[in-house]
Amino acid sequence: MTTLSLGPSPARRDALARRIRLLVAATIAYNVIEAVVALTAGTLASSSALIGFGLDSVIEVSSAAAVAWQFSAREHAVREARERTALRIIAVSFLALAAYVAVDAVRALAGTGEAEPSPLGIAIAALSLAIMPFLSAAQRRAGREIGSASAVADSKQTLLCTYLSAVLLVGLILNAAFGWSWADPVAALAIAGIAVKEGRDAWRGKGCCAPTAGSQACAKSPVR
Length: 224
Description:
Mean pLDDT: 78
Structural class: mainly alpha
Shape: elongated
Number of helices: 7
Oligomer: single chain
Radius of gyration: 19 Å
Distance between the termini: 36 Å
Number of strands: 0
Strand content: under 5%
Helix content: over 70%
């Protein structure tokens, strides 16, 4: 007779909650620095891509803050009760990011101005590309094990930052090396499409967890 797993023990659940709080704190701290550097570099270079990247960092902070608020509660029942609100905030963050990136990409393709090369922008994009995948993967694993759709959704927001970092880095390098100013906005439109999908999934509570008892939390989270 097969025994069904009841999911993480209370002690393991508390340990995972502490881990998620630490990962979210690290994400917020890094994104604050990333936002300041990207917005400064974008303003100096008149780069709409860098400014958009900086604003994305601001949105990521709001998403991570929503999860931090959820997991600031010590009781598991309270964290579950906060799940839907956190998911809504994350979903709106995704959709706001998609809207901004799409509008900014269209403006760039329409030729509203040419950005100057930005060594500082290249440096922050490369650093984000190196750091963000590890933060995203660690939070996604913990979120799936504990059964938190909001933690998983926030990890996808961090992963999206990785894609944006790659797009930004390629765009800045191509612009600096060859003057191909169209490369970044074209790729950014694809990223906007991904953000719309992730925002929709977060709103519905999809893509949450592994099939453990944590999936009970997932079953409660979809918004109809």
